[in-house]
Amino acid sequence: MKKEKAIETIRELPAEFDLDELIEKLIFVDKVDKGLKQIEDGKIVDHNEVKEIVKKW
């Protein structure tokens, strides 16, 4: 995560917040960013592939 993204996330929080709330929000934003990057890179699994993977469980 870039520092600018973390600062932006902090600015969106109210004046007083719980530290756990900040950590959860930063983790969420980071995971979303990583997921979007995977989509850009073509690292996706389509619905039918997921169904086949789940059948093997």
Order of helices and strands: HHH
Structural class: mainly alpha
Number of DSSP strands?
Answer: 0
- Multimerization state: single chain
| Cα gyration radius (Å) | 16 Å
Shape: elongated
Q: Main beta sheet, described? A: none
Strand content: under 5%
* Total of domains: 1
Q: What share of the residues lie within helices?
A: over 70%
Average the pLDDT over all residues and give the rounded result. Answer: 95
Q: Which residues form runs of ≥5 with pLDDT under 50? A: none
- How far is it from the N-terminal to the C-terminal residue, by CA? 33 Å
Quick structural gist:
The protein has 57 residues and is mostly helical. The chain is built from three helices and no strands. It has one domain.
Descriptive account of the structure:
This protein has helices at residues 3-11, 19-40, 47-55. It has 57 residues and is mainly alpha-helical. It has one domain. The longest helix has 22 residues, at 19-40.
Describe the protein's topology:
Blueprint: H1 3-11, H2 19-40, H3 47-55
From the structure above, extract its key features.
mainly alpha, elongated
